[in-house]
Amino acid sequence: MTNPPTKGEGEEREGPVIRDKRRIDPETGEVREPATAAPPPPGAAGSAPGATAPGADDGASTALKTQLAERTADLQRLKAEYDNYRKRVERDRVAVREQALANVLNELLPVLDDIGRARDHDELVGGFKSVGEALEAVTGKLGLQRYGEKGEPFDPTVHEALMHGYSAEVTETSVTDVLQPGYRIGERVLRPARVAVAEPEPGAATGGAEPGAAGSADDQNGGQAGADA
Which residues lie in Basic and acidic residues bias regions (predicted)? Predict the structure, then answer.
């Protein structure tokens, strides 16, 4: 019986190959440094991935600047649109408030007229006087203004002439009587003042010459000329 041949000491034994890839060295307890490949020599062909050719950086920078300018312009346009929208909403809100206030005050104008007539006839006394004055104070705080006085120049934009006449006491078309006062809020007229107006008498601007005076002088001159003849 023969024994199987054995391998010599110089021969390699066949079997599994074990590679230690642990990051912690079991003997020293230190972290092993990963093996890195040597960098390619400068200028060698097949450079590292991600390398860009000369001039590529300039093109990328120009593209980024263009995109940044476009985004900045978009943001500026959006901001301008928002500002315009905010101003329009604020303007509409103020207009709606003024319209609502004008509608309420228009309903109170007849009451204020009654209070004014009672004051003119010395009938605004007692509790009625307190209520009337309180109502006038509240409407005044809301911006309601009463206007229309005798002697002021006639303005067709705020006055409504119900009566017309001539007077030697005025030098321009003026208000001679206020039949119904006007009311406004700021520059907005709620109701024009209804007034009587008077214009200067015809011929009053000619220096005050008496009508017919010129004719009398001509008659005298004509009579003297006939006597001389």
Answer: 8-33
8 A C-beta contact, residue 198 and residue 166? yes
Q: Which fold has domain 145-204?
A: Nucleotide Exchange Factor Grpe; Chain A, domain 2 (2.30.22)
- Burial of 97-133, coded b for 16+ CB within 10 Å and e otherwise, reads eeeebbeebeebbeebeebbeeeeeeebeeeeeeebe
pLDDT band at 14; cut points 50, 70, 90: low
Instruction: Give the end-to-end CA distance of the chain in Å, rounded to a whole number.
Output: 198
Please tell me the distance from the alpha carbon of residue 151 to that of residue 159, in angstroms, as a whole number.
Answer: 13
Q: 3-state class of 179 per DSSP?
A: strand
Q: How does pLDDT run across 90-140, given as a tens digit for each residue?
A: 999 988 988 999 999 999 999 999 999 999 888 888 888 999 999 999 999
Any idea of the CA torsion for 60, 61, 67, 71, to the nearest 10 degrees?
Answer: 150
Q: State the average pLDDT over residues 38-64.
A: 62
Q: CA-to-CA distance for 10 and 14, rounded, in angstroms?
A: 13
Rounded to whole angstroms, how far apart are CA atoms 200 and 22? 118
Enter the pTM of the model: 0.53
